[in-house]
Amino acid sequence: MNSQRPKVAVITGASQGIGARLVNAYRRLGYAVVATSRTIPAAEEPDVHTVRGDIADPATAERVLDAGVRRFGRIDTLVNNAGLFLAKPFTDYTRAEFDSVVGVNVAGFFHVTRLAVPHMLAVGGGHIVTITSSLVDNADARVPSVLTSLTKGGLQSATKSLAIEYATRGIRVNAVSPGVVRTPMHSEEDHAALGGLLPVGRMGEPADIVDAVIYLENAPFVTGEILHVDGGQSAGHRA
């Protein structure tokens, strides 16, 4: 393998919001990027390759990793950014909503991560970062979100388990646990109310989450970490 090839990051949920900014951030680090989402357009630069597909489908994970190796020759980092968030009372969730959230948040993580690890081992190591949610650790009755806790909480536990399993094999595994972030997921009229849920009194910005991911990328002694970037939500609540 050509050791002069740039490192390669795979980023899921990469068409907008945090994911699109992660693509730019990894390019600034000198990485080539494989970016995927259901609606992502074709890339306009040679060191970014896009794959359109539903990450809940195992075939999408296969196409993403195959494309990365075929195009760039290696896989070094995986950012599991794709996710669904649906806040509603527990008994109001439908079976279809359960299947959809579990499909993206859990199956999507499982399939692409399982396929990425052997490629990382082949180049001597790598880094897996997963975006979770601060609500996992800090339930809030104003935002009933059992499916988030069920799925993203599982990913936080999986992060620690994988970090220990691969600690001596060169693969670091971490997570970023955001509070409410200003993305297209939230409508403008809800921003003030959502910001009021956090101790700092405002929503986070996509750049806050991107900065946390890049910190972890550049922190070789950090693994198994759940990094809360949540405006104080994990610390407590204002009176």
TrEMBL record:
Molecular function per GO: oxidoreductase activity
Taxonomic superkingdom: Bacteria
Swiss-Prot/TrEMBL keywords: Oxidoreductase
InterPro entries attached to this UniProt entry: NAD(P)-bd_dom_sf (IPR036291), SDR_fam (IPR002347)
Name of the protein in its database record: 3-oxoacyl-ACP reductase
Stated family: Belongs to the short-chain dehydrogenases/reductases (SDR) family.
